[in-house]
Every structure is written in structure tokens, then in C-alpha cells.
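Standup notes, structure subgroup. Blocker cleared on the NDP input:
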Amino acid sequence: MSIAEYFSSMDYGPAPEDDKAARAWLASHHARFGHFINGAWTSSSDSPSFETQEPANGNVLAAISQGGAEDVDAAVQAARAAQSGWAALGGHGRARHLYALARMVQRHSRLFSVLESLDNGKPIRESRDIDIPLVARHLLYYAGWAQLQETEFADWAPVGVVGQIVPWNFPLLMLAWKIAPALALGNCVVLKPAEFTPLTALLFAELADRAGLPKGVLNVVTGDGSTGAALVDHAGVDKIAFTGSTEVGRIIRKSTAGSGKSLTLELGGKSPFIVFDDADLDGAVEGVVDAIWFNQGQVCCAGSRLLVHEGIEQRFVEKLRRRMETLRVGPSLDKTIDIGAIIDPIQLERIASLVDRGIEEGCTVWQPTGVALPSAGSFFPPTLITGVSPASTLAQEEIFGPVLVTMTFRTPDEAVALANNTRYGLAASVWTETIGRALDIAPKLKSGVVWVNATNLFDASVGFGGYRESGFGREGGREGAYEYLKPRAWAKLKQRAAQPARAAALVDGDDSDAGSSAVPMIDRTPKFYIGGKQSRPDGGTSFPVYSPEGAYLGDAGEGNRKDIRDAVAAARAAGKWSAATPHNRSQVLFYIAENLSARADEFVRQLVERTGVSRTDAQSEVDLSISRLFTYAAWADKFEGTIHEPPLRGVALAMNEPLGVIGVGCPDEQPLLSFISLLAPAIALGNRIVIVPGRNSPLMATDFYQVLETSDVPAGVVNIVTGDTRALMSVLAAHDDVDAVWSFGDAAQSADVERASIGNLKRTFVDHGKQIDWRSRDAEGFVFLRQAAQVKNIWVPYGD
Ligand code: NDP
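Run returned:
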């Protein structure tokens, strides 16, 4: 076309980004890469390799080494060798390194963004203006936490060697989200990039070495899923941080169960984009474009379910279609395109087959007629699907492509119900001009992030992560720092000795009371406490409880699967507790303490009789239990959120929300204090619990329900089931209506719980059989409160 013709048609001409520097870098490596381990390249000719391609045209970019178990082992050893020195460098030293890495990214920003777009197929506009600036922002932000580590995280130590596995949709950004907090806080890293997109991670490692990062601090091992699995299974790794599909997240949860490795999972999503009838519709249309066509919809938090107020649906969809006609699909290095290439023909095929499935299920598919697709490469047009029912495949399955499904709602409650009708819980976007409505809806949405009149906003200061099957753990913010730290006090804990079930002592003459004519004590049968009522075991069986010396103390109910089911149903029904004000919850906890205090003498006597401790120790256990209830009554209305100030006109409100229903398993030691130490933080922050006392010491807990009954604790908030603790905890861990499990008391039980939790990927908090001294200050406070809450970040931009 001539210039005159461009003027008359107003079409865009081609505006390709210069790729010489990126290709020169590839050529400098002869387009073959080894792994980057201990500050050096491994030989690329010694190992099997695979090719990475340009999604925009299918051309091969480079040959990449396929990492095996030996490569992973070499990388883990290098990281281990470097870790103590890196930690000893101190916060300021590490802050200098992180700062240097941020500047390095800024200095080479064009090379990084071009290489990223070549390898991933994403529009250069996005890699240049979003991904790479955010990479630098993360490194700078965590340079700040490194600097502040000694004062702000004085009670916390680095986790050690961290294995990090990232997907292909934001290759360098995911690297930065993971390595910035890990390195800043004194850990060393072995990173496995995605098979489709390894190049920017390799470039980063090479440049980081040149920028002076000590050898072994950051190691990159390339390969496919089997390389990731070798990293997960390596005994020398202390933590796995994974971003990817929910399916692989489950596999990793299972293989790390019982290993003592800590784990964070950032998984998939099916995020709602809710448009109310009072929204700025043109703004919301632009929002949809950013929500589902950013990065070709290959975004874990893509707003892939459009929920529109019924009255405006037609108008909104018309506007959206008009806008879709103007979208431009094309090669990633063209600066004028909106939508780039899909990562790989396999993913293209998956998107197409899901859309076909929608057609089979009766949905209506619409694609703009004016959008031309390039003839080569993997491209899919922007797609709008109507006539979708909440249960249809397209409304439930993550498509991970440029495909939007729409549904309508009539009332705000219906919008919330539809929005939450998914197994995921990563993000949500709410469009309304009424701020009161937006802030009323946001806490009701089961997702880790909510954007008000905005979408896909990210910043290093604002935590990101999922509820439900979107995973657990947060990246970004102060909360993201804790994911790479462990409490110093806990690191010193000793493994507790195995605690076999107690039995009767075989003492001669233990039937010496036989024939006594004294009037016996009135029989007292400890029951379960479910839904605010005392109830008998479903199975109609009990087990004998003995003191440590083998004296018979009484019988406790033998709980089974059905008792747990009833207890979980009661806890689930007590949802009002989660919505109660913190002031209200605080009062109830103070009141529990008051009532325990009123019965202190009885509890002291029982502790002496049942556990064999001295009267002084028993008195101290009761006093500490009362004090601990006061502690959590105090925290109930003080464990508040934060207001973040990301670099935009607006704020992000980080709210500490309850997890929902928590299954709690207690140890045998200090049976009153440990029971209270676990119960109180969980309910203080609005959770409802099903709590299982230690097998050998259930009677202090069953005595305690009489305290609960007199303390205005609403029915269902605390449910107590006694029995075989390990077996009952496994049932709780496998229950899909339980949101989290805490397991204390036994290493094997910790492993069972982690393994059984994969169904709905519940968050777990376990002691791995380490013996906690419940009298210590380390057995209360932030460590427990953090586990009792999940952070939701609500972004509220402002201005016209
Ligand atoms: P996968 O889960 O398949 O892969 C993610 C990473 O894990 C890749 O590096 C992959 O290697 C590796 N991997 C695969 N199998 C195993 C295994 N058994 N053990 C250890 N590692 C393994 O996801 P995709 O790469 O296909 O990414 C798309 C998915 O990721 C989507 O579902 C998306 O929602 C989710 N995602 C979530 C994000 C979040 O923040 N929550 C962000 C981005 C994506 P390989 O590349 O060779 O397959």
C-alpha cells in the first residue's frame, strides 16, 4: 500500500520491533543452551535436548537441554553450598544485589522484552510495557524487604534451598515473582522454567552472574515436567514454589506430603467479570478487552466469565462486539497488534476443542468478521460465547485462551452465587459506579484478588494468590515474604517421641474396690459437641481413657466418618460467625476465658488426676490457657488488614479473611493448653472448627464444652469429636467442605493429612511431629494468626 492509501483506509501499517539484539544473543550461544548451575553453563552437547520455537511462525529459536536427576542434583548442591554464605551476607548485602538485578533488567529491558515476545508469542507492547517493568519493580520492592529483614523479620529465618517451577504464560515475570522474595530473604534457588519458554530465564541467569550475583545463589535447570518432578522429589530441597495448572499442583502436593518441605501453589482460575447496570459500560468494555484478551487469555486470573446484569446484557454485548471488530491479531513483534500468538499448536488445539464442546452443548459462538489471522503460526481469534449455562463445560473449565463466556444475573446475590460457582478462587472484577455496592460484593467473592472497575492490575506490594483450588500462599507484599521464611523458634523444635495409645496398667489388686459398699460417683459420660449440642457417637462405641500411669479415667466416644460429616455440616452452617464483627468475636473469647476462670479449680484437679502433673504445673496450665484466650480475644479485633499504595491512583485493601471451616487435630501434651492454643486463634479470626483432641487425652476437651455452652459461642462454631485422632484427621483432610487442616501431634498424621488434602487442595498447617512447648510464647501469636487467615486484596482505583 502507498502512504496515500494508508491515509484513506486508516489501516495500520506493519511496525515490527527490531529483533537483532535478541537474535545476536541467541547466535552468541550458537542457539544451544546448557543449564546455568553454580554461575556457569553446563555443556549443551552432553545432554539430550529439545527445541523452543517462535509461536508466531513456528520457527526454531534454540536447542535447550533436557535436565535429568543429575542436573537437578548438581543445581541443588550448588544452591546448598551457597546458601549459608548468602544468608550470612545480611539484609543490606542482599538488598544491594537485588538492587543491581533490578537495574540490570532495566538496562537490558528491550532485549528481555523482545526475547520474551519471540519465545512466548505475546505482543511486544505487553512484554515491553507490563511484564519487564513489573520484573524490575519486584526486584526493587524485595530489595527493600532484604534491607529491612533484620528488624522486620527478626524472629524468622530463611527456609533454605528453594525449588521453583514456573509456567510459560509470563516466563520472566513469574521468575521475578518467585526469585525476588526468595533471594531477598536469604534463600538460594533452583528454578525450572517451562519447556516452551526457557530463554528469558537463561538470559537472566547469565546477566545476573555478570552483575555479580554469587555463584550458586540462582541456578536454572531447563527441561520438561519430568525435570520439575525431579526437583520436587529432591531430598535437598526445603521448599517448592509452583505456578501452573491445578492438576500438576495436586501431583506436587501429593509427592511433597510428609517430606517436611514447605509448599506454595499458584494454580488455575476461572475468574468472574461482573458488570452491574450502573457501570460505566464503555469503561467496562475496555475492561473486558484487558481481562480476556491480555496475553491471548493465557492468564491464570483472566476474566473469562462475563456476568452481566440482565437488563443491560443486549446493550453491553453489542458494544463489546463492536469493540471486538477492532482488535488486531498478529505477530508478536508488531507494535500495533492487540492479540499475539497462542503458545503452541497443542494449546491451540485444546482451545479449539473446548469451543467445539461448547457448540455441542448448545452455546452460541461469535467471532468478529473483520479480524484477520496470520497464515502461519498459532493464532486464535477473539471469541465471545453466549447461551452458556452455569454448569456447562465452558463455564467451568479453564480454557486458557482468548475465549469469553457470558451469563446474566438479576440481583447482586445472584451475581455473587454465579461468581462463586466454580472450584477456583483466584480473582474477580466488579464493575459498578456505586462504591458501596462494590465494597459490599468484594468480601463475598471467594477469590484472592478483587478489582473494582479495573482488571489485571498487579504490583509487587500487593499480594497475589488463590482461594480454594487456585492454590495457597501469596506472592508479592509482606505476606509474600513470609512464604520464604520459617519461625526461628520452630526450627529448634525436637521430634516428639512416639506416643502409643495408653493402656491399663497391670497392677496387682487393681480390682481392690470390688465388693466395696461405698455409694459410687454419679456416672458422667463425655459426649461429642456438635452444632452446639452434646451428642453420642454414631457408632455407639466408646474407648477407655487412661492416665499416663495406666489408671482408668473414663470412656470417651469413638468418632467415625459420620460423626465428622455431621460436625463439618454444623460448622459449615455456622457461617454467620465468619461475618460477625471482630468486636463480637473478641467479646466471646473474653467470655470463654471468664468462664474457664470460674471453673479453674475443677480443671486444675482434673489435670492433676489425668496427666499426673503437679498441682503447681496444672495451675500454671490453666492460667496460661486463660491468658491465651485473652491473647486471641485481643487479636480478634486487631489482626487487621493493610492499605497498599501501588503505583496508580488508587489503593489496594489487603483484608485478612477467615478460611472457613478448619479441621484441627490436637496433640496429647498439655491437653488443655494445646487445645486452647489451637482453638482460640482459629475462631478469633472467624473460622469455624471441627477439633479432634489427642487420642490419649480427650477428657479435658470434653469437659471444655460446658465452658463453651455458657459463653455465647454460637452453635457450630466449635465442634468436638473424640476418637482415633489420626484416622479422624484423615477424614477431615479428605472432606471437600473443609477449607483447611491443622494437624499437631504426630509425624505420620501430618503426612496423612497433607496427602489426603489434595481433593480440594486445602491449606495445611502441620507440626511434622515436632514437639511444641505450648507454655512458650512461641506457641501463640502471629504464626498461628497467619495460618487462620487468608489475605484478599481489593484494588480500588479512583479518579474519573
Ligand atoms: P503446567 O502445570 O503443566 O506446568 C507448569 C510448570 O510445571 C511447567 O514448568 C511444567 O513443565 C512443570 N511441570 C509439569 N508437570 C510437572 C510435574 N509432574 N512435576 C513438576 N513440574 C511439572 O501448566 P502450564 O505450563 O501448562 O501453564 C498453564 C496453567 O498454569 C494454567 O492452568 C494456568 O491457569 C496456570 N497458571 C497459574 C498462574 C497463577 O499465578 N496462579 C500463573 C500462570 C499459569 P513443562 O513446561 O515442561 O510442562
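Discussed briefly. The pocket of NDP is lined by residues 165-169, 192, 194-196, 224-225, 228-229, 232, 243-245, 248, 251-252, 266-269, 300, 398, 400, 426 (CB under 6 Å).
Next: hand off to the docking folks.
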